[in-house]
Amino acid sequence: MLEPGDRVLVAVSGGKDSLALWDLLLDLGYDADGLYLGLGIEDYSASSGGYARAFAERRGAHLRVVDLPADLGFDIPTGARAAKRAPCSACGLSKRHLFNAAALEGGYAAVATGHNLDDEVAVLYGNVLRWDLAYLGRQQPVLPGGDGFARKVKPLVRLGERETAAYCVLRGIDYVVEECPMAAGNRHLRYKEAMNTIEERSPGTKAAFYFGFLDRVAPLVEATAAEEREDLHPCPSCGSPTVAEVCAFCRLAERARA
Ligand code: AMP
Ligand code: FES
Ligand code: ZN
User: Fold this and answer.
1) For the CA of 44, the nearest ligand
2) For the chain, what are the domain ranges?
3) What pTM value is reported for the model?
4) Which SUPFAM superfamilies match (predicted)?
5) pLDDT tens per residue, range 42-81
6) CA 54 to ligand 2 centroid distance, Å
7) Which among 3, 97, 135, 256 is placed 20 to 30 Å from 76, CA to CA?
8) 88 lines ligand 2 (CB under 6 A)
9) Are the CB atoms for 63 and 56 separated by under 8 Å?
């Protein structure tokens, strides 16, 4: 995923996974900066940002902060309403865009996120239920950079969320425990619950589902994602790759500000 000594931008939410990831990348000798996005979600954003800042200070690491309300003129709840999207969809779109932009602008070798096995299994489950081949083609722990994309890596995909929580406890890392209030009851959480029910009765199912996908199915659907990349051109407003006239993030931001 990374070369020794790489400059990495770690997307940190203040939660257990991304703080564990930042901690271990620093210990492994990577030149790892953090990136925190203030999404403007009630008290949750203030509290999660506090954990990210406290960790950076304790480790003497550099944390970049992009505050959506202050720096971009809108927050996620407003963006979601304006774009008529579910909050988590507006949020995911904004995160992907801003991670990519920050990594390219800062000249990082890769952007790393804290997605764990439970996250990947829930996303895979959703993609399979809809047979979304384009999403399946892009559901990889490593996505190469180039043509307006930063390299993306998810180093924790082999670990369950209880393992990253245990790591934080053992390392004395304080993290935000509360869930995002906007995510309550969303599809992703329902898929996680469903997979937990199956895992309880048949331990090992999650790992078999996800790693079987990577070994046997991902190579078959890769081409779909590659074909999609061929239709991309730079957004005239921000330069990000898009298939639309103006990219979805610029459209959302413009509507939210209006
Ligand atoms: P989520 O989409 O909330 O499941 O988070 C997946 C990963 O995205 C986390 O492990 C972090 O690496 C990153 N992330 C989530 N929220 C933020 C945020 N507000 N700022 C920076 N990175 C984030
Ligand atoms: Fe994105 Fe809650 S963190 S909607
Ligand atoms: Zn754009």
Assistant:
1) 2
2) 7-257
3) 0.96
4) Adenine nucleotide alpha hydrolases-like
5) 899 999 999 999 999 999 999 999 999 999 999 999 999 9
6) 21
7) 135
8) yes
9) yes
